[in-house]
Amino acid sequence: MKLSVIIITKNEAAHIAKCLKSVDFADEFIVVDSGSTDGTVELARALGARVEVTSDWPGFGPQKNRAVDLATGDWVLSIDADELVTPELAREIQETLKAPRGDVYEMPRLSNFCGRDIRHSGWWPDYVVRLFKRGTARFNDAYVHERVVPNDGKRPLQLKGHFHHFPYDTLDALINKINRYSSDAAASMYAKGRRTSIFGALGHSFWTFVRIYLIRRGFLDGRHGLVLAVTAASGSFYRYSKLMFLAEKNKQ
């Protein structure tokens, strides 16, 4: 069965080559780029990908659905540019497609933070739905934190092999993402009618730290786990603080 790999990108020159090479068993590579200026588009095309460049940014869910709509394979595998398909997962996907037991599959994702694979802190096993028969599932319309939703509503089957994820090579990368995502999340919450106060922001921040560092045993990830818990708590504080100020601004 023909397999299409879909990837959305923006300035992913540091990752795109390794990403595409990890899925070289696929039949088709679809890259939807939202205005890269670092050579991502040229690199992807040189490696055999079909690249479509968009002039707008509708959010992660809608952008990935654009890639789904361009795919022509019987099956679709969605992968982010900073992810790799491990050899074990590659073999399992190929074996699965020879005799599928279902239409939608999820697999665990092992993420790396500043050189260390994180196996606690709520980061592992991070199951993500990424493999599906074309026409049986789509991404939701979430601006951030998008996910694949099966058309029939059934629970996806699981694969054992995992993605290897490299989202944050540096602490700066994590902090920058927290700032961007907290703004997007605040805007989304405001549009849904959510409101908060400074005490609400503090409460959410405190609970986030407790959940990640203690309940999800982030302390077992050493200093990396402590940094992740603190930055996640900060992100929660920023998100609700931005929501508070956004609501105040729009009252004027």
Task: Give a quick rundown of the structure.
By secondary structure, this protein is an alpha/beta fold. Helices cover 42% and strands 22% of the residues. α5 packs parallel to α7 (222-251).
Characterise the protein shown here:
The chain is an alpha/beta fold. It is globular and about 55 Å long. The chain has 2 domains: 3-167, Spore Coat Polysaccharide Biosynthesis Protein SpsA, Chain A (Alpha-Beta Complex), CATH 3.90.550.10; 170-251, no CATH class. The protein has 7 helices and 13 strands. 42% of the residues lie in helices and 22% in strands. The strands form 3 sheets. It has a 7-stranded mixed beta sheet, sandwiched between helices. A 4-stranded mixed beta sheet has the order 5-13-7-8. β10 and β11 form a beta hairpin. It has helices spanning 16-22, 40-46, 60-70, 87-98, 171-191, 198-215, 222-251, and strands spanning 3-9, 28-33, 50-53, 75-78, 83-85, 104-107, 109-113, 116-117, 128-133, 137-139, 148-150, 157-158, 163-168.
Keywords:
Spore Coat Polysaccharide Biosynthesis Protein SpsA, Chain A; 2 domains; 7-stranded mixed β-sheet; single chain; globular; 252 residues; 7 helices; alpha/beta
